[in-house]
Every structure is written in structure tokens, then in C-alpha cells.
């Protein structure tokens, strides 16, 4: 067991799946030598660029062939993670596959089959920690994705730990988060004090734990817009173009969002001769902005005011204190083409729009020549070049007409050749963080991904709490305590889960920072001794018992001929006896019998020989289950649970010479002819037989951890 903990998160998006590997110091190691400021901070998560790997297409593309999702999609990603994580740490490394918008649009049955196949494959081909499929392998709703992104952004910017360095005014120190993928878009932010009080029931309560075990709480608004990602928005745009033709046999549709002269099918394929609907690029970016604006659905009814777009309620955004960071398409669309050729110019909104308009008004032949010359960098290919005009118009409309970001500009991060944001942060400090929006890709060489937010939450939950009854780490409705919909980062933290509720059990038992280290170790030692005692055999157990009994009687041995004295509280345990112990039960009218204890050699324990050695019978030695026994032929037994400390054996009928004892069963008779049948029935002497024991089951399942409803 090394000093590092690891975590694996697979982001199963609509266009592909990406695996992320993270690591952080064990809490006991992190506390050693930490200064007070570091102790009041969250665990430090590390990753490296080559620890990330992506494959195409998305998981949802296997809906019609789920049996292949493991071998043809996940195999390389899991092998990549296994190559990074030391083998000795694999069994305590949690793995999560969290699917987003692409899987949300599948049917319930298709989703369930795919997720089951993924979990089965991961369990069969890795040793990673995967205790509950429903929690570790699931489709997460957009609001959860947005919250994870908000955590990741503020974690990397340091606003959780250094609040004074990120003071935006009025005690506000966190950043808003914007994300856009292919199918959906998310927003997450902490409203100002006035809006937070007004819309308290619309906020999520987030609870994190610092290295020293103290808590920090945040109240965040999150919402998601399904079908507002760039690919889904493009699909809705094409449907609107086709509807505008009126179905009058028009096959060529002018598309102002394509470069001039480009001809494609509605799904983006080249066409040489018109066949079916054909999109013909006109390169009119102003018209493209105008035609994409209706896709915001700003006129939709708003039952819960205020709303931003599509009738979705959102608290008012105070851009004086709410400064937003945009990732994914907000970064790629504004930088992949329009950064490389313009490193020496300012990068405000007006300049950005001018660059887009200049690019999109070119002939497609000129753009193709620029691609050959790698004018916009190696990563820009034909598909990105023809898509960027629509994407740029959609991003501009979403930011400024949809969300309402002031048109003060998009932050310039093109000062160096690398995709970092140190320049953004430095420039932000100089300006007092006054910009309402800045697009980023990496912060301190770490990619801003919502998957990081998931691991921050998990690593935080593994820290030992300051006090025994501390509130748990996770998120849920904005109510005090632990709300009914509270979501825990791991199944191990559920209130009904077995084991310890914080760090891995070896850490709890042996690490010096755990308050349960000493009692936990003693309990562990006691369990080991108890297991060894039961495994050492019946004879050794009896000798150990006599030695202990002799010790407590001050070393005075018991002579076999000493008279026996009945003790009011004799220590007589079933597992120390040489045979099963049974209750003495007499039928009405039956003769009373003498009681004695017979050893295996045919003599009584007090040394006297048995009166009937050759006709001694013993209790059944094998039982198949509670309520059923393998019996000696000719004898019938009825189990009786009327005794509080023993299992009773009811015997009806009898003959002189039969004897039973609490320490075991011996049946003596002078003749086999005197053996009477033993009644078998539901009751003996008015007592019921012991009923069958119900089968015990244990299943970790919590409604609080099941995925939220699809958007």
C-alpha cells in the first residue's frame, strides 16, 4: 500500500468516451508536515496529460449491439488505466463510468442493457473497485454534470481554498461554470446573497471536507438544456431550413452558416450532383446569426420567473460578482481556428466576430488551400472548418442573447504557444476579475473537465471527519442536515453500508491520524483470536476452556471424584461440549429418568463406568438446514426452541433406562425391544418446533444514489 490513492473516471459522451486517471495523497500522508492553510484545503488531485485517452464513437452507438461495447470500445481505455495504476493499488482504486447526453436520449431498456454490459466487462477484466454498478456505472443527469464541472473549475482556480485572493465583491469568491458538448449545455453558479435567499429552494447544497476533517458548504444553482449542444442545435437548425422550403420540391437550400460555394448533404457529406436535399453555402455570417437566434426559444412560456431560455427557470445573474468560465465548445470554437492566425491582436468580442465573419465569407476552395498549408494549425481539418461558422454563431447567441453575458469580450489566452490559462489568471488579477466570461481549456496544465469534479468529491469524502457525528460529503436539496435525495460519492459511505464510513479500513486501523486507530486495532485483534479459537478443533477448545477455568479458580484443579456442586451461573457453552446440548422435555405420563453425562469412552465424566455401554445412542450429527435433520433409522426427532439457551429435542414415549442431560444426549436401554418411537410433529409438550430461518440477504442500494430523472 503506497502513499497514493487513485481514481478512474470514464466520460461517456455523445461523440466518444474518454478515460481520466487521477491520484492524490492518502489523508494520513497529506497531513504530515502540512501548514494550517494546507490543512484547511481540499485534497490535492494530480493528473498528467498522457493519463487521458479517448476513443470514438460514443457508447450510445452500441445500443443495437451492446455485447460488443466491451471488446470494441472499453478494452483499450481500461488497459490504458491499468498501465498507469500500480497493480498493488488497483483493488482500492474506484472506477466510474458516467454517461451524459448521448445516453440520455436512448430508451430505458437500451440504456439498462448497455450499462449492465459495461459493468460486467469492467468487473471481469479489471481489479478496480466496483462495489455497486448502479452507482459507479450510470447515466448522470445534466445538473449533476454541471455541478461536477463547477467543482472542477473552482478547484483548479483555487477559489475553494484561497477565498481572499478571489474576492469578487460582496463576499463572493466562486466562479460560474458554462459547458457545451454535442447534445447539451449546462450552467452552474452561486447566486448573489439576495438571489440565493429568494431562490433558496432552487439551489443545491454541496458539502466538501478539507484535509483536517473540517467541512465547507456551498449553495449552487445548476441547470441543463438538452438539445442545446452544438450537434443537436445544428440538427434543429437543418430541420428549420427544410421546413422553411414549404415542401414544394425545392432540393437546394441556401445555408448562410456554410462557407460560400460549399455543397453538402444535411448530415455534412460532400455532394457533386444534387440528390435529395442539398445545402449550398452562402457565407453570410450576419444572416447565420439571425437564423440561429430562434433556436434559443426565448419566447417559450416561463411558469417560474425568471427564465433565461427555453422556459427554464434561472435566478437572475449578477455579472458584477458572477464571473463565468467556459469549457469544451466554448473553448474549441473560439480558439481552434481563431487563435492560431491572430496571436498579435486583442481578443475581445468585436474582434472575434470580425474574424469569424472574415473566415466564413471566403470561398470554400480558399479554405481548402489554407487547410493544406495548415494555416490554422495541425488540429483543424475539413470537418472542423465547415462546422465552425455555425458553431461560432451558436456560441455567440447562447452567451450574449441566451445567458445574457455582457458583450465586453472573450478573454485573450493567445499570449503564448501553449494552451494554458496562467495569462488569464494574471490578467484577471490585474483587472480585479471584472470580465464576465473567459474561455479556458487548461488551468495549471490540468484540463478543466467535469470528471475532475467527481474525483474531488470522492477524495474529499475519504478524509476522516473531525468529529464522530459529522455531516457526510455529497450534495442534495438545499435543506439542513442530510436531505432525502442526498447523493453520496461512493456506496461505501451509505448509512447502511458495512465497514467504516471514511477511509479504507487499513488506514482507519493503522494510520496515525485516525481517531479510531487504537480501538479499531484491538477489535481487529479480538476478531482474529476469536476466529482462531473456533478453528482450532473441539478438543483444543475444551483444553483451553479448562485452563482458563483453572486460572480463574486460582489454580485449584478439580478432582474427578470430588462431589459436584451446582453453580448458579455455570459457564456451559455449546461450542465447548462434546455433543449437542438438548433441553430435558417430559411428555405427560412419562416416567422420569435419571440424568447423567456420558463420555465417548462409555464412562461418565465423574469416572464411573456406564451401565449400558453397548446400547448407547447419540443425537444426530448432521443437519441439512434449520428444521430438517438426518436421523438414525427408527428414531424420529423434533427440534424444540423453547429453551432460551439450548436447542430442545422433544422425545415422546420411552422406557426405563433412557437418560438425557443438558450437556449432551445419551439414550440407555437394557433391551432394544423397549425402544419406543419418538413422535414427530409440529409441537412437543405444547411447544412449537423451531421454524426455518429466513434467508438473509444484503444489498447496497440507496434511492439517493440512483441517477436523477433524464432531462
Structural write-up:
There is one protein chain. By secondary structure, the protein is α+β, with helices and mostly antiparallel strands. Among the domains are: 1-140, 2-Layer Sandwich (Nucleotidyltransferase, domain 5); 230-432, 2-Layer Sandwich (Nucleotidyltransferase, domain 5), CATH 3.30.420.150; 577-694, no CATH class. 29% of the residues lie in helices and 15% in strands. The chain has 19 helices and 25 strands. Strands 14-13-6-7-9-8-17 form a 7-stranded mixed sheet. A hairpin with a 2-residue loop joins strand 15 and strand 16. Helix 7 (142-157) crosses helix 16, helix 10 (285-292) crosses helix 14 (382-403) and helix 11 (329-335) crosses helix 14. The longest helix has 22 residues, at 382-403. The chain is globular.
| Approximate strand percentage | 5-15%
- Kindly provide the radius of gyration, computed on alpha-carbon positions and rounded to a whole number of angstroms: 37 Å
CATH superfamily of the domain at 230-432: Exopolyphosphatase. Domain 2
Residues in helices, as a percent range: 25-40%
Q: In terms of per-residue confidence, which ranges show pLDDT below 50 for 5 or more consecutive residues?
A: 343-347, 410-433, 498-517, 558-711
What general form does the structure show?
A: globular
Q: What quaternary form is this?
A: single chain
| Biggest beta-sheet profile | 7 strands, mixed
Give the strand order, joined by hyphens, for the main sheet: 14-13-6-7-9-8-17
What is the name of the CATH class of the domain at 230-432?
Answer: Alpha Beta
What's the CATH topology label of the domain at 230-432?
Nucleotidyltransferase, domain 5
Secondary structure category: alpha+beta
Q: Ends: how far apart?
A: 42 Å
**Number of alpha- plus pi-helical segments:** 19
CATH architecture of the domain at 230-432: 2-Layer Sandwich
Overall pLDDT level: 75
Query: Strand tally, please?
Result: 25
